[in-house]
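This protein record is not my work; I was only asked to verify it. Where you disagree with what is written, explain briefly why. This is what I was given:
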Amino acid sequence: MRELSRASGVRTALSIAGALSIATTGASQTPLRLQSPNGRHVVQVDVADGVARYAVQRDGRAIVLPSNLGFLFRGAPVLGALRVITSTRAERDTSWIQPWGETGRVRDHHRELRLRLAESAPPAREIVVVFRAFDDGVAFRYELPSQPGLADFEIEEELTEFVLADNSKAWWIPANRPAMDRYEMLYASSPVSMLDTVRTPLTLEMQGGPVVVLHEAHLEDYAAMDLARVGERTFRPALAPWADGVKVRGRTPFVTPWRTIQLADRPADLVPSVLGLKLNPPSRISDTRWIRPMTYNGIWWGMHAGVYTWPAGPKHGATTANAKRYIDFAAANRLGGTLVEGWNIGWDGDWIGTYGRNFSFTQPYPDYDLRAVAEYARAKGVSLIAHNETAMGLDHYEQQLDSAFALYRQLGISQIKTGYVNDRTAEGHAHTGQRMVRHFRTVIETAARYGITVNAHEPIMDTGERRTWPNMLSREGARGGEYNAGGPDGGNPPEHETILFFTRLLAGPMDYTPGIFDILLRRPTGIGRTPDQPRVRTTLAKQLALYVVLWSPVQMAADLIENYDAQPAFQFVRDVAVDWDSTVVVDGKIGDYVVVARRAKGSGDWFIGAITDEESRTFDVPLSFLPPGVAMTAQVYADGPTAHWLTNPLPVTISSTPVTRASRLRLRLAPGGGQAIRISKRRTHTR
């Protein structure tokens, strides 16, 4: 009944608005096939019975069954009687060095099929559909050429389909919830036939394999794609709207984002995920040496834990004295930066309800001397990170961008953290709609002109923009670590991060904010804790392992700095890298465990992070990824013998052992636990 209802709705829309559905007037045309370089992936495109469709196979097994292509336009006549004018093919094999990332070099080897279709009768409108087949997946997009019959347009729906070949198990978060039009929810798992509308990346495990990930790439001037189920196993893009309901506005020539289908034999083979990078244009920043990956600390966790406040008052966190304390700690512990939130006027009162109209991005509170703090940080060799919360008041923020960024550049502030705590803009546009996509691009490009990097919270999901604009360092885009301090359900469950690795992290880096040492949130002396207060649902060793597992070029030592005093385990936070030459996933199962090894860029050190859900686990890890003939030392931060995330989360055993390429390490993880390891050519010592 549900499927019939959706179909009836589409028919009504067609009669009112008109549609673009790629079709021919005559008999079926010969199907066209596109094969990946390794031959494992095949895309088949055919035009039959008035509809153009595509299908995807891997090793001869159907992944996506024949699925329709097209759009629903507003105020346009039906586009029909289409025929294939030309089909061209190409093959490219290139590579590039990333300025930072999860792997140092990316190879882009793909085959391409371009289909140009046009109406056989006036006004003879044209559309191009481009397919690319890679060894790690396939992708396609639409191009609307400049033409007399199609200039300005409005898209009401994108009619692209993904007809899945079986009732795969899916890991998902819901989309289009009125009270939370963002990504900050716990993942669920179920057969795809039980889904409604969900976010991407959507990770699917087919029965007997392989693993499939549906997402998008090169989102520049379009609405972000959610996926709505319109049949038992059929999905269509659900595009977030403008306030008037239109999904996308454009003018030809116009290209859509790529629709991506990442494919792998098993979950562990999904990482590193670089399919989206290969579908974005090359870097627009010619000299990237000013872009600095780093570990940072900041005045942030204290607000979530109730120690400080963002607004002015007796517990105001962003004071000159407090900022200098955090900068001193960063300098003493070789951290690259210090974030200060709540420094600028506008936090008093209902700043969410007013869409941040009182925020100034240049004027500090009276108890925070911005210039003095910036100079102090510069003298200490620490990068001061300015927080820009907007509350989705986009026009208000954009009017101040140049003046704010010019001030930051003058003061030596080279990184901002943006925030968008609201579900819609002041005008009613959706959080992930085209207006927001345009805004994000404006911020990234403006920041690049001023030599500023961006870490976005409450963002639009990563679609590979970091290749074109590598100053777009990281973003949130999922339920992060702050929910362990203020979550309504007590915090993130032990399985949460093992799911993020195979879902959210496949889109790109995430600023998860690990490193909480005060697991039980006992807080400084004199500050009480109620019995139902949320807490961190990991062991301390797992907090260390998250620095390796949940990768980001900016990682936060997120706890209050006093909670790191006299903590030998903090040595790992000092040492762990944030920029990688290579990534090797040793083992992993979605929702259960992850074991990943990464080689630090430039140093030759390797870091291993292993995490588990609520179950204890043991792994025997071969070190065959190490260089041959080199004697190395593994410094191991393991769960203590009696550690348990619920009853005894704090014990950490620190040990060192000599290793070589022929060695194997036995990793024992407590329930809700983890293990973090640094392997270096020289012996390391704790302070």
About this structure: Residues 10 and 677 are 55 Å apart (CA to CA). Residues 2-274 form a domain with the Beta-galactosidase; Chain A, domain 5 fold (CATH 2.70.98.10). Residues 2-17 form the longest helix (16 residues).
